[in-house]
Amino acid sequence: MYKSVLVATDGSQTAGEAVRVAIELAAIFEAELHVVNIYGTGASAFGVAAMTIAPDTVDLGEDAATNAESVVSLARQKGLSAVSHVGTGDPASQIVAIAKEQGTDLIVVGNRGMRGMKRVLGSVPNAVAHRAPCAVLIVNTT
Predict the structure, then answer these.
(1) How far is CA 114 from CA 33, 46, 110, 134, in A?
(2) What is the pTM of this model?
(3) Which of 59, 125, 129, 138 is the most interior residue, by most CB within 10 Å?
(4) Beta strands in 14-70 (DSSP E)
(5) How many whole angstroms separate alpha carbon 75 and alpha carbon 72?
(6) Taking the CA atoms of the chain, what radius of gyration do you get in angstroms?
(7) pLDDT of 49-105, one tens digit each?
(8) How far apart are CA 130 and CA 59, in angstroms?
(9) Who contacts 56 (Cβ-Cβ below 8 Å, separation ≥6)?
(10) String of b and e for 36-48 (b: at least 16 CB within 10 Å)?
């Protein structure tokens, strides 16, 4: 049913639940897993809390890449084909763009939580669901 599953993560504990579900679904359907971590310096981008707390000591790009690669490594340990995508900008727009580019059949996102403080993540799954070129699973991460 699904040949390509995309999961969006920011490395938070709550996003970990979306990752767990995405890996499980990719395994069931023998689908390729695309792991997306979007960061940036704008208020709508992943990683804002870290930039606010310590703007001179945090490399969000490196953090995002490390997080995405750790999820890819976990997926590969479970026998899955997996690839990471790290970028900047508006998370919802980037998630949808990567899904279109990769021909994704299913996008998996969490419903809340982002690195240490509650922010506008609730709007990310909403925006993804309305713009996605494929099915979207919003995982309850509470």
Answers:
(1) 21, 7, 10, 24
(2) 0.81
(3) 125
(4) 32-39
(5) 5
(6) 14
(7) 333 334 444 456 678 888 899 999 999 999 999 999 999 999 999 999 999 999 999
(8) 31
(9) none
(10) bbbbbeeebbbbb
Structure tokens belonging to residue 39: 């960061």
Region of 103 (left: φ > 0; alpha: ψ -120 to 50; beta: rest) is left
Rounded Cα distance, 42 and 48, in Å = 7
Mind spelling out the 3-state secondary structure of 20-78?
Answer: HHHHHHHHHHCCEEEEEEEECCCCCCCCHHHHHHCCCCCCHHHHHHHHHHHHHHHHHHC
Tokens of 57: 């000591």
Pair 80, 33: CB distance under 8 Å: yes
Residue found under tokens 């395994």: 27
Beta strand pairing status for 135-139 and 32-39?
unpaired
User: What are the pLDDT digits (tens) for 11-63?
Assistant: 888 889 999 999 999 999 999 999 999 986 443 333 333 333 344 444 566 78
Render the burial of 87-100: b for 16+ CB within 10 Å, e for the rest.
bbebbbbbbbbbbe
**Residue 88: enclosing H or E segment and its boundaries?**
strand 82-88
